[in-house]
Specification:
alpha+beta, 5-stranded antiparallel sheet, 6-stranded antiparallel sheet, 497 residues
């Protein structure tokens, strides 16, 4: 270890391009999942979260041996001595929130709770979620919510690699991971949360065998407010082109009204659109909150797409609702190899049981599993896999016009209104200046290894762009129809005959 004379160091400032949620594992009366906060009650990103995501990203770039040498590994404890595991040589700090004057809030501070910038962080937004079944209704125990950190929030953290002279290339690969469009932090990264952008990346390389570098290193403190050696720093300009990801962008315009409900009500309506404030950095040293902006949750788009992808995949292989009722027909389709679940669930599939056959359009559908992943089964034997499709939340820059719609349920016998059945909803309408709603989706190429998955996915996207797959709430009342185009890797995806 005496040859580890170098220190590769970086201070990175990131901005949340979408809301993010790093769960604390706690809940309260307002939400099922609270975000982790520091001693000041402000959100932060634990160093363990950063290190874990970074290690997972580097698994594609470095061999297991190289990764273990840098980030350590846990031994199996079958032997005694130094070979039984190794500590990490990569030191990762917490990512602290940046406040006024662009300064990280590191350590105990006397922030005033009524400060117009810090006060909203004491009451973070709560996202409502509901899991929809194949019948289009909410599933039992499928309702939950979680806190999120505002889009635009900035964080600062540091990395330090204890190294020799031979690991500069590996250090650069580490930094490149933060520039990857697929790099996300926290929970819900596949349903719109955790997208980051690099605002600043300052690096330095110190040789501790050099007296001047050693003095610099000894003078540096662990505080994120400490100067980062203005006479030594290098500002990195790093690009990471992800060849393994396909980028889809939907440029959409609403045909009429749309409603992504907040689950709350106002004085005027029982249902209102979900809105959130975002942090703006128009003045780099003076962040401030915007007005409430209409939100298009990525989870709503993802849920609708998952059901339509399953429909098209089944259609392409001749699996219809009628055939689901006949076990013999299902056996022929499954034997064709198009429904290889690629885990132990396949061994437990019993075509004689209708509930199992029904799973071919939900949890056992190969296209859904390849694109959107799957959770553990009840018996915990089948493993889990995260999705290969990454979605991003959308906050509309210009507020769409709002309209109040009144509804009443009619008694089919008398033709009159049912007592207590009058309700109203506030919906979003036309958008100013021909603004389009842009939805970005990243898909890993491995998701398209299954037969017909790519075709099913792109057919589902085209349904959104032609109004055949409405988004949001009230779709049976005519809401949520859009028209637009699909951009795939920078080129418009045309209808193929």
């Amino acid at each position: 270890m005496n040859n580890l004379t170098h220190r590769y160091m970086a201070r990175i400032i990131v901005e949340a391009e979408t809301p993010l949620t790093v769960g604390s594992g706690e809940n309260n009366i307002l939400t099922n999942q609270m975000v982790v906060t520091d001693i000041n009650g402000l959100p932060y990103i634990p160093g363990t979260s950063l290190a874990g995501v970074l290690r997972h990203a580097l698994e594609q770039e470095l061999t297991e041996l190289e990764l273990n040498k840098i980030m350590g590994f846990q031994g199996e404890r079958k032997t005694e001595g130094p070979d039984d595991g190794q500590g990490s040589r990569l030191i990762v700090s917490h990512a602290q929130m940046i406040g006024h004057e662009g300064i990280p809030i590191d350590g105990i501070t006397k922030n005033q709770l009524d400060d117009p910038f810090y006060k909203p962080f004491q009451n973070l937004p709560v996202r409502q979620h509901v899991r929809i079944s194949h019948k289009g209704t909410s599933e039992d125990k499928g309702k939950f919510d979680e806190q999120v950190v505002y889009k635009g929030t900035r964080f600062c953290f540091e990395l330090e690699l204890v190294s020799d002279r031979k690991e500069e290339s590996k250090w650069k690969k580490m930094l490149e991971q933060f520039y990857s469009p697929a790099f996300r932090i926290g929970g819900g990264t596949r349903k719109g949360f955790g997208e980051l952008s690099i605002i600043e990346c300052k690096t330095a390389s110190l040789d501790l065998s050099n007296e001047d570098d050693l003095d610099l290193y000894l003078e540096k403190t662990s505080s994120l407010n400490d100067e980062f050696w203005n006479n030594k720093e290098e500002t990195n300009s790093i690009e990471n082109s992800e060849d393994n990801w396909i980028t889809y962008k939907l440029h959409l315009k609403p045909d009429d009204f749309f409603l992504f409900s907040s689950g709350l009500e106002s004085a005027d309506a029982k249902m209102i659109p979900v809105t959130e404030k975002i942090v703006k950095w128009d003045k780099p040293d003076n962040p401030e909150f915007s007005e409430e902006k209409t939100l298009v949750p990525a989870s709503s788009v993802k849920g609708a797409l998952a059901h339509r992808v399953a429909f098209y995949y089944n259609k392409l292989h001749g699996l219809t609702a009628e055939k689901l009722k006949e076990s013999s027909s299902i056996n022929e389709i499954v034997k064709g190899g198009f429904y290889d679940f690629r885990n132990k669930a396949n061994d437990k599939f019993n075509s004689a049981i209708y509930e199992d056959r029904l799973k071919l359009v939900t949890t056992y559908n190969p296209a859904v599993r390849a694109l959107f992943g799957f959770a553990l089964d009840d018996d915990k034997d089948n493993g889990a896999k995260r999705g290969n499709a990454i979605f991003s939340d959308v906050h509309l820059d210009n507020e769409p016009k709002k309209k109040l719609l009144n509804h009443v349920a009619i008694d089919r016998f008398t033709g009159g209104a049912i007592d207590g059945a009058l309700f109203s909803e506030e919906v979003a309408g036309s958008m100013e200046n021909q603004e389009k709603l842009d939805i970005k989706i990243l898909v890993h190429k491995t998701a398209f290894e299954h037969p017909k998955v790519k075709e099913a996915f792109e057919l589902a996207l085209k349904d959104i762009c032609t109004g055949m797959l409405p988004l949001g709430g009230g779709t049976m009342r005519g809401h949520g129809c859009f028209n637009g185009i699909i951009i795939k890797n920078g080129k418009e995806l045309k209808n193929e005959k």
